[in-house]
Amino acid sequence: MNVQALPIGVFDSGLGGLSVLRSLRAMLPAEDVLYYADSAHCPYGLRTPEEILHRSATITSTLVQRGAKLIIVACNTATSVALQELRGRFGLPIVGLVPAVKPAVAATRSGRIGVLATPRTACGETLAELIRRHEDGAEVFTVAAPGLADLVEAGYTVGPEVEVALRPLLDPLVTSGVDTLVLGCTHYPFLRDAIRDLVGPDITVIDSGEAIARRTRDVLATCDGLRPGSRPGNLELLTSGGPKTVGAVASRLLGEPVVASHLLV
Ligand code: DGL
């Protein structure tokens, strides 16, 4: 079988992982992508670890059955709960996503970093361990942000609703003197403009999209799995939610027409 021609499987609780897809396409434009948006179970940030693990394993199994050559868990929350277990269960490369604490520590000048994440990621051991490993004397302020992913799922990326949700989360970080802000959820890069407007130009805003695209490229290169040629890759979008709404919001987020198909797994 020609592995190179197979798609990359990507999943998230919803459409946040499309921010990772953008970076992936910029770096690997020829790759086909099979994306599963678990919109019927979004947000993961308020679910139990058992539920998140069950959903992640079921979706990974579906993507594998449909021929994925590599899986990207395009969700910090699912990565923190399920990555190790998925790697143990499935015999293909699985790339996960952690908040960009390490690059933030390298970038900070004030020694103060903010991390915005879902409640599950914010209180999880994965983030605590990541911070312990990389803080190198920096002070890290973690803020749990319930509700932000839902705004993006509903298609809101700028405007009064977004500002009202963001302000109480960001103001204390600005007051604390952070100069680097980590977007610890894949939905949040879609709020980047609104975040920038509130924190101002002196705070560097970092996400993990490009690092994940690079990691994916390196892993595929190692197993000779990169798709050659210049034909632009296809995006197939599957969702457990309503395909009309999910397709419409995905189109808005990516700035191009996207059709979603319903698949409940
Ligand atoms: N996009 C997800 C993440 O990166 C989760 C959002 C949610 O479902 O709570 O954490």
Task: Write the topology of this structure.
Blueprint: E1 8-12, H1 18-27, E2 33-37, H2 49-65, E3 70-73, H3 76-89, E4 94-95, H4 101-107, E5 112-117, H5 119-122, H6 125-134, E6 139-144, H7 148-153, H8 160-175, E7 180-183, H9 192-199, E8 204-206, H10 209-222, E9 235-239, H11 243-254, E10 260-262
Parallel strand pairs: 1-2, 1-3, 2-9, 3-4, 5-6, 5-7, 7-8, 9-10
The protein binds D-glutamic acid.
The site of D-glutamic acid has 16 residues, from α3.
Percentage of residues in DSSP E strands = 15-25%
Percentage of residues assigned to helices: 40-55%
CA-to-CA gap between the ends? Answer: 26 Å
Q: Tell me about the largest β-sheet.
A: 6 strands, parallel
Number of domains: 2
CATH architectural category of the largest domain: 3-Layer(aba) Sandwich
Task: Explain how this protein is built.
Helix content is 45%, strand content 16%. The chain is of the alpha/beta class. It has 2 domains: 3-97 and 210-262, Rossmann fold (3-Layer(aba) Sandwich); 101-207, Rossmann fold (3-Layer(aba) Sandwich). The strands form 2 sheets. The chain has a 6-stranded parallel β-sheet, with helices on both faces. The chain is globular and about 55 Å long. Bound molecules: D-glutamic acid (DGL).
Please sum up the structure shown.
Helices cover 45% and strands 16% of the residues.
Notable features of this structure?
binds D-glutamic acid; 6-stranded parallel sheet; 4-stranded parallel sheet; 11 helices; Rossmann fold; 265 residues
